[in-house]
Structure formats: structure tokens, C-alpha cells
Amino acid sequence: MRRIRIFDTTLRDGEQAPGCSLYPHEKVQIAEQLAKLGVDVIEPGFPASSPGDFAAVQTISRTVSGVEICGFARTLKGDIDAAIRATQDAERRRLHLFVSSSQIHLDFQLRKTQDEVVRMAREMVAYAKQFVDQIEFSPMDATRTGEEFLFKIVEAVIEEGATIINLPDTVGYALPEEFGRLFRTVRESVRGGDRVEYSAHCHNDLGLAVANSLAAIQNGATQVELTINGVGERTGNCSLEELVMAIETRKDALGFETGIQLDQIYDTSRLVSRGMNFPIAHNKPIVGRNAFQHESGIHQDGLLKNRNTYEIMDPEQLGIPRSMIVLGKHSGRHALKHRVMQYGLTLSDRQMDDLFGEFKILADGQKFVSDEEIMGLVSNQARSPVVPYTLIDLQVVTNNHRAKVASITIRDNRTGTERSYAGTSAGSVEAIVHCLRQAMPMEFDFRDLEMYSLSSDETAHAQAVVSIMVDGVEYQGTETDTDTVLAVAKAALSACNQAVAGMRESAETDAV
Ligand code: KIV
Ligand code: ZN
């Protein structure tokens, strides 16, 4: 197995995506998580670009250990000095220098001749080399640079001491076969080309970033530059989780490995998505909401019998909770039974048949059936509520300048008692969560809230997905309502109900 180095540029190139900028403290938190994920190199920002970015790179260099820190700079003394100072205290560091090399960039952006650009690159690599040993060099827009000039500039920087040559497909233009060939020819044709390491940096404009990165490593690249969730300029960079999982899942064919801790993938993806306020498409490979959801009855049935029937990766290995399969009109009896069991309920075959019949009638008229509706059907059948707690009443007073106030009445279905709780906070959701914390018999961490709009009109039909953690186990509740806040409250209670049911079930098993 050949070990591929993972260079993470979420905090530099990823942050260049529109609307994704981060505060320095958020960068530090993400960098800590990236180290936990096991990336080899972190590029935490562009120190010369702003005082905030300088501070973030400096703090990360000082505090994040076990990973190499990369200072990013144009081939300008001021940039290099800033990158050197910002990364001064890193355990291990490198500098990453870049300059455009394609004719279109030279003519319209740099307004420099090829000779001037080579001279700049040479001088600045030699300058940086006095301070830092590991120098990575990127000829920007490499895939639209003619071979002759590309070889010339790469040769020049290797002569001056560059140790890593990164070939960026800056505008996502390359095709896999072409990109692979580029690595092979640069490696074989450039003087000194066998003395350096090669790195691939792919953008996803044609959806080929993962394929191109794989082609590069099949042709000698030992490092790939990636971002979490594929975030980055325009359509983004090569997605870390997609590339890593392609390497992992198809190691039989590829023969590569990485140092990534797979079980940290999901948490890292969530952290970045939340911090950057960047939603993940439902059908995004690996971390998208639908990546491990199965709606069709045939798929659900196969999956419940043997996961490998319709899944090539194990979501739990990636740290993804085996959360709820979306239940809808295509769902089978097996999946419905599974869902009911998540609430700690066991039904006889007859009860299950009846429930399934009613479920199918309900599902025929709507896009999917929520847990609340399923539990409603089960409760009707049993002639009493089957979930531990039912929401009886919710009121939230909201305004634009004072604390929000929530009051909730909840019935404990075991004892039949109803109790009311009040909570205040800066936000309506937090006020509701304060109420739930008082009402529930266990402590929980509110992990995540995702909201989806189910309608495009003023009815504002919303779907809320709430995740909570209880004793290291994640529970997820999904509910819908035409009132957004109510959808969140119901989803949070649904997650709590699953946790309580799980706790009661294990307590009963222990007693036996
Ligand atoms: O896409 C690109 O060319 C880059 C380089 C500066 C590495 O991000
Ligand atoms: Zn880039």
C-alpha cells in the first residue's frame, strides 16, 4: 500500500467559497478537529491577507500539534515574511508559494512575461528557502499552461530548493487521463523531477475533482489537496471525504492508504458545514443526508437483512449515526417494524399487519411519514399513547429586542401526569431546549439542527431534523409542521423519546 498524504485546505481555499468566511476562533476549532481527523498538513489561511487570518494561522501553529502547518504566500517578499512569522511556532511547517503560469493569467492578471514570472518564482523560492526547509510551489492554472513553460518554471523552482511541486487544476478544466499524464510527464521530463514530491490540487467545475486527484496519485502524486465537504471557490475543491473513501473502499484496486481516522469524518463535516454556514446537498456522497438512506421497499428490505446488499460503506465506520431511514410510500413492512422498534416497541405480527395497512394509506397521500404520525397510528391501535412523552402545548413569545420565552406542557404517558416548564433565551429554539432539559429524565447534548423547506410558498412547511447525544449515543428526530418552531420542538422531543425508550429498554434487559 502506498501512503498518500492528505493536505487539507478547507481553511484557506475552502474559505474562499462565497459566504463561507470564518472567525479566527472558528478556524482554530476546525483545525483541532482536522488534527483529530488525521490529516497530514493543514493550510490554515493566507497570513498576508488580513490581520485576522494572520492571527488564526499563528494560533493554530502554536496550539495544534501532530500535524504540519502550511503558510500560504504569493511569490512576494511581504507575503512570505508574513507566512514565516505566522507559522514560526509550529511543530512542523512548510511554506506554499504560488504564481500563475498560464498565458491567459500572465496576459490579463499578472501582466508579466514568462521570463519575469520565472525570475520572480526563482528569487522568492530561494528567499523562502533561507528560512524554511520544506517549500511547496504551485504554478497556478497548471493545466492550462503549455508543457514547455510549465517544465521551465518547475525546473527553476526545483533548482532553487522547492521540495514539493503542486500542480493545480485551478479552473477544474482537466480530464482524468490528461491530468494523470501531466504528472507522469512532469516527473519524467523535468530536470531534478525525481528529487521532489508531487501534489494534486483539483477544482470541481466539471465534477471531476475526485477522478482527477485519483489519476494524479496513480501517476506518482504522493499528496492530494482537499477540503471538507468539497467546499471552495465556485463548485469547490476535491472533497476530502469522497477521495478518502474512494481510496479506502477500493483499496483492492488502487493500492493506496491514508492516515485519516474514518470515524471522525462525519463530525468534521458537520463542524465545517455549521461553521461556514454551508449546507450539504442531500445527495452529496459520504456525508449527504441521503447517502445512507433507503426509501424503496426493496432496498430497505435488503438492507435490513444484509447491509452489503445496497451499501458499499458502513456509515457507522464514518461516525454517521444509523439514523432514521426516510419512510414513505415505497417503504416496506420490514423498515416500518425497524422504526417502531427504535422507540422500544414490539408489536405482534397481527398488530404489525394492521399498522402497515394504515401506514400505506397515509403514505400514499404524502411525501414521507413522520415519526409522530407513525407513533400516532401505533397509539390509536393500542388505544393509548406509546411514546414516553407527548407534547400537549407549546407557546413561544418572540420579539426583536428581548429574550424569547417558551413554555411547554408535556405529558408523561407512563404516569399520565402533565407538567409545564418555562425557559428563556436569546433564541426561540434555545428557550424550547431549556424547557425540554427540565422535562426529560436524562441529560442530553443538543448536537445539531437542520431545517428544510418543504414548500415554496407562504405556508412555509418546514422539516426539522434534531440530533441529541445521550451517554455517547446519538438520537435523531425528524418532524414537519407548517410552523417552523413547532417542527423543531416536535423533532427535539422525538429524539428525546427515542433516547428515553432506549434507556428503559436497556434497564428492563438489565433487570432480566
Ligand atoms: O486553485 C489553485 O490554483 C490554488 C493554488 C493557489 C494552489 O488554490
Ligand atoms: Zn485552489
Structure description:
By secondary structure, the chain is of the alpha/beta class. It folds into 3 domains: 2-276, TIM Barrel (Alpha-Beta Barrel); 297-382, Recoverin, domain 1 (Orthogonal Bundle); 389-511, Double Stranded RNA Binding Domain (2-Layer Sandwich), CATH 3.30.160.270. Helix content is 41%, strand content 20%. The protein is built from 17 helices and 16 strands. It has helices spanning 24-37, 51-63, 77-87, 103-110, 114-129, 147-159, 176-189, 209-218, 240-249, 251-254, 265-275, 297-305, 333-342, 349-364, 371-382, 428-439, 484-511; strands at 2-3, 5-8, 41-42, 68-74, 92-100, 135-140, 164-169, 197-202, 223-226, 256-257, 389-397, 404-412, 418-425, 445-453, 462-470, 473-481. Strands 2-3-4-5-6-7-8-9 form an 8-stranded parallel β-barrel, surrounded by 8 helices. The chain has a 3-stranded antiparallel beta sheet with strand order 11-12-13. Strand 3 (41-42), helix 2 (51-63) and strand 4 (68-74) form a beta-alpha-beta unit. The chain is elongated, with a radius of gyration of 27 Å. It starts with a strand and ends with a helix. The mean pLDDT is 93. Bound molecules: 3-methyl-2-oxobutanoic acid and zinc ion. 3-methyl-2-oxobutanoic acid binds next to strand 6 and strand 7. Pfam families: HCS_D2, HMGL-like, LeuA_dimer. InterPro entries: 2-IPM_HCS-like, 2-isopropylmalate_synth_dimer, AIPM/Hcit_synth_CS, Aldolase_TIM, LeuA/HCS_post-cat, LeuA_allosteric_dom_sf, LeuA_bact_synth, PYR_CT. It is an enzyme of class 2 (transferase). GO terms for molecular function: 2-isopropylmalate synthase activity. Pathway: Amino-acid biosynthesis; L-leucine biosynthesis; L-leucine from 3-methyl-2-oxobutanoate: step 1/4.
